[in-house]
Amino acid sequence: TAGYERRYCYTQQTITERQNECAFRQSGVDLYELPLALPYAFVVSESVLTNNPTHLRLDQVKPANVLLYQQDSIVINATSTTNDRQFLVVQESNFPGWQVTLNDFVVPHVTVPTIYYGNQTIGLIAIPIIKGDHTFELHFDPPGLSTGILVFGGTLLVIFLYLKPRRKQKSPA
Fold it and tell me: Which of 36, 98, 151, 163 is deepest in the core (most CB within 10 A)?
């Protein structure tokens, strides 16, 4: 099974069973393409996704088109050709702070479980998608960042005022 793998891997040792997959070799380092790895963003049916999300295969998904990928901002075009319930899965950790919009409307998203850590589910972003061609915008705004910046700035101001040299008052003579 391919699962959630990276598209490429590198090693300093030649992997004989993957010799045909070697995409680049230089200075004793081999770069292998993993042809069965899932794309960065893809559309998959709910039934396939819920049955065994950690063992998805490339032949079960339809790749989506990533239009923009920048730090904290991603734009993806995805197409659903069926009336069955489907999801756009993006291989980004679904940390608090992700917001998904479609035509300037906030769209709910869920977590596709990939790892269970105690009672916490860690996973990828999954967005429900209906039949048609859609362009989704994903933005990441870490919760508490603005508050943290204000507290930091206030702390610097207090330190500056405390360390500021005071004028000596002239004593009456």
Answer: 98
What is the 3-state secondary structure of 84-146?
A: CCEEEEEEEECCCCEEEEECCEEECCEEEEEEEECCEEEEEEEEEECCEEEEEEEEECCCCHH
The structure's pTM equals 0.70
Whether residue 87 contacts residue 128, with contact meaning beta carbons closer than 8 Å, is answered with yes
Q: Which of 87, 78, 91 is nearest to 46 (CA)?
A: 87
In this predicted model, what pLDDT tens digit does every residue of 83-106 receive, in sequence order?
Answer: 999 999 998 888 889 999 998 899
Q: Give dist(CA 131, CA 105) in Å, integer.
A: 17
- Whether the CB-CB separation of 31 and 8 falls below 8 Å is answered with yes
**Residue 49: CA atoms inside 13 Å, Cβ hemisphere, count?**
24
